[in-house]
Amino acid sequence: MYNSQESFFKSLKSTLPTHFNFPQIVAQVLNISLNESYKKIKGTSSLSLQQLTLLCDELKFNYHYQSNDTEFITFLSPQIDSQKNPMYAYLHSLYEDLVAIHRLKQKQIKVTTDDIPLFYFFKYDELTAFKLFFWADSMDIPKEDLHNFELSEEIRDITQKLNKLYLEIPSTEIWSKDTIHGTIEQIRYAYEAGHLKACFAETILEQLRSCLEDIKSYSLNSRKTPNPDHKFRWYANDVLGSICYLVEGDGSLISFNRFNTFNYLKTQNNDFCSSINSWMDILIKKSVSFSGNGEKQRNRYLNNANLDIQNLLNEINNG
To answer: How many CB atoms lie within 10 A of CB 259?
Structure first.
C-alpha cells in the first residue's frame, strides 16, 4: 500500500547531501516529531498530499507519480525562454542536475551522442564562448553575456564548475563517426558567415584540438582524473540516432534526452529508463572500444578529426 510513499522518500533522500540527517529534515519541514518522521519514511504512517507538496517545494524536489495502469511518461524540461538571462539559467539548471548526481554514492553516466559532450569544452574559455554563442544564435536567445565571444565572470564560473563535476562522475560514452565533425563544421560556418575573425577561429580550433587530447588521455588511463573512481569508457558507433544521457545512481535511473539544439527532456520513469539502458548496453556490444588498449581504432578516429581541423586552419590562413 505504501510502496509509492517509500519510493518517494527514497528518491527524495538521494537528492540531498549524504551528511544530512534525513529524518530530522523531514520532521522540520513538516513540523512533526522525529518519531512521526521515521514512520512516514518507513511507510507506516500516511503522507498527505499537502505534506508531499510541502516537502517537494521546500527541498526543491520534482516528484512524478506513475500509475501502474497508464503508459504515459512525464518529462521535465528547463524553462529558459522566460528567464532574464536564459543562457545562465540553462547552465545553472545543468549545474543543479550535476550536483545532485555527484552527491550519489554509486553513480555513472552513460552517453550516446553525435556532438562532443559540452562539459569537456568548459575547460577552454574561447571554445566555450563560441559554443554557447552558436547555440544562442540558433535558438534566438539574447547574447549580451557573450559579446565579442567573451565570457562573463558569472558564465565562466559556472562552466568551470560544470567541467570539474563532470570529470568526477564516472562515464561511459558512445560517440558517432560525426561527433567531432559537427563542431568543426560549426566553426567553418561561423567563420565563412563573418561571425568569427580569423584569429579567433584559429584559437578555438587549437582549443578543440587540445580538448581532444584531453579526452584521449582519459581513454588511455580509463579515468578522467587521477582518482581511480572517476572511470571513463569510450566507444564509437557509426549509427546512434539520438543524444541521450542516462544516469545510474543508487539503484535508480534518470534519462536526459536532448532536443532543440541544446535543451533536454528529463524523466525518472523506470520503464522508459530501463529501455534506454538496455538499448545502450546493446550499442556498447556493437561499438568499437577506444579505452585502454583500443589504440589503433582510437588513433585513426582522432587522426581523421585532427586532419579536418588542420584543413580548416589551412583554409583560414590562406583566406
So the answer is: 11
